[in-house]
């Protein structure tokens, strides 16, 4: 199981080089860039210049806020220049954000994402093989590519496409079209083994095709009691935010906590953030976050998710001392 660094509010431009070097120097295997408070692609351009080993991933970039041609260009260049270290993580986002935050149309997300992936591969083939670009779908149309606008082929081929998927239809489509699934941070061993993994198995993935299951996992760690307390409360607040989203009510239903999700949703509408945090019990914290001292954290993650996840993004929604990640990776060696 690979361990990566996942800055929880996004990878800031001014921090990208430092965090990338930190991830590489401590033995972590990747750096993820989330579209939250920051744009996800530009920081990875800085990160690739600061490193030569680790994988660089958007996890996730909002696909339905962007045209496939724009994403294809950015991903192609990041993958080409990094020597194949870039991984394109995409997600559809939910209807209110696409319509009210991005001001775009939202409909048929599974069909749109399926066609989006097809469009990306058609564009990349035109650049890498010289094949004529002739993609016409229900939602996207790309039929013009002249030499003036065609980038040089990538010696590293096309980047892996990883898809955020929650519902069974999106999971089945991801198994068919993508190279992996990025589970939502509001995931536990129970929700993964009772929901996501059976859905992946039911979709009938070809045995000879690699397929990765990854997840940003909320972690609570620190070098002192005060740091642990800060980490614990920041994580509690993050769980409250995720659990207030209607699309994830089904996650809490698996713990017979659907009513709690409804209460969190009402409080979020009233912007009563502190009251929301108080609704997240210690029992839910234990399920949706992994708490351990830095030297024991890797072992705790492996104990919980070995055989379930192929890759974990260490998701700390708080400021952590860089030395923490060195201790985590030192403990990983003992846990293997």
Which key phrases capture this entry?
single chain, 336 residues, ten-stranded parallel β-sheet, 14 helices, 12 strands
Would you give an account of this structure?
- The protein is of the alpha/beta class and 336 residues long.
- It has helices spanning 13-25, 42-50, 68-82, 95-101, 109-129, 168-177, 189-202, 225-243, 249-253, 258-269, 273-278, 282-288, 294-305, 322-335, and strands at residues 2-7, 30-33, 55-58, 61-62, 86-91, 135-136, 141-142, 161-164, 180-182, 212-220, 289-291, 311-316.
- Helix content is 49%, strand content 15%.
- Strands 1, 2, 3, 4, 5, 8, 9, 10, 11 and 12 form a 10-stranded parallel sheet that branches. A two-stranded antiparallel sheet has the order 6-7.
- Strand 6 (135-136) and strand 7 form a beta hairpin.
Low-confidence stretches: none
Largest sheet: 10 strands, parallel
Give the N-terminus to C-terminus distance in angstroms.
Answer: 10 Å
Name the overall outline: globular
**Quantity of strands, as a count:** 12
Overall helicity: 40-55%
Taken as a percent bin, the fraction of beta residues is 15-25%
Succession of helices and strands: EHEHEEHEHHEEEHEHEHHHHHEHEH
**Number of helices in the DSSP assignment:** 14
- Mean pLDDT over the residues: 94
Q: What class, by secondary structure content?
A: alpha/beta
Radius of gyration: 20 Å
Concise overview:
The protein is of the alpha/beta class and 336 residues long. It has helices at residues 13-25, 42-50, 68-82, 95-101, 109-129, 168-177, 189-202, 225-243, 249-253, 258-269, 273-278, 282-288, 294-305, 322-335; strands at residues 2-7, 30-33, 55-58, 61-62, 86-91, 135-136, 141-142, 161-164, 180-182, 212-220, 289-291, 311-316.
